[in-house]
C-alpha cells in the first residue's frame, strides 16, 4: 500500500495580507512562490485579478502565457507594470499613481507544472490620503525583521525537505514497481502478532 501524498503538497505562494499605499504614489504588490520545479515559460501561467469588494467578481488585468500580457482594464489604464521575474519565482507588479478607487483585493494565481496545484496569494490594498502619525517603531522593526528572517529560513528548510521527500517518494515508487515485476516472493502472509 502506498500512502497518498497530502493534497497541499507542492507550490506555496507568499504575498503580504495587507499593503498600505499613499494616494498618488507607486506601490509594489509583492507575490513570490516556491516550487520544486524550474519555471518553463511554455507551461508556466500567472493571473492577477482585482476585486473591489469581497462579493464582487474578479477582473483579470495581468497574465502570463509564454509572455506577460497586460489586459488594460479601464480602471488601471496603463498604470500597471510587471516588475517580477518568473524564473526567480517572483511575479510581483507595481501599480503607479495609486488612486482611491484602486482599494480592494488583488489575487495572484500561479501554476508551474509539473506541480499540479495552482498557488494563490491574496493582498488587500488600502489607499491612504494622509501619512499615518510617525512614532518610534525601531524595536518593532527589529523584532519584525528577526521574526520575518527566521520564518523565511524555516519556510526554505521545509521546502527543501519537501522537495527531497517528493523526489525520494518518486524513486521509491519506481523501485516498488521494479520489485513487483521481479516476482512476489516474500512479504506476503506474515502473521499479525499481538492479535489472537
Describe the structure.
It is a single-pass type I membrane protein. It is found in: Membrane. Keywords: Disulfide bond, Glycoprotein, Immunoglobulin domain, Membrane, Signal, Transmembrane, Transmembrane helix. Its main location: membrane. Pfam families: V-set. There is one protein chain. The protein has 196 residues and is an alpha+beta fold. It has a domain of 116 residues: Immunoglobulin-like (Sandwich). 23% of the residues lie in helices and 28% in strands. It contains one helix and eleven strands; from the N terminus they run E-E-E-E-E-E-E-E-E-E-E-H. The strands form three sheets. A six-stranded mixed β-sheet has the order 2-11-10-5-6-7, with no helix packed on it. The protein is globular, with a radius of gyration of 23 Å. The N terminus is likely disordered.
Summed up, what is this model?
The chain has 196 residues and is α+β, with helices and mostly antiparallel strands.
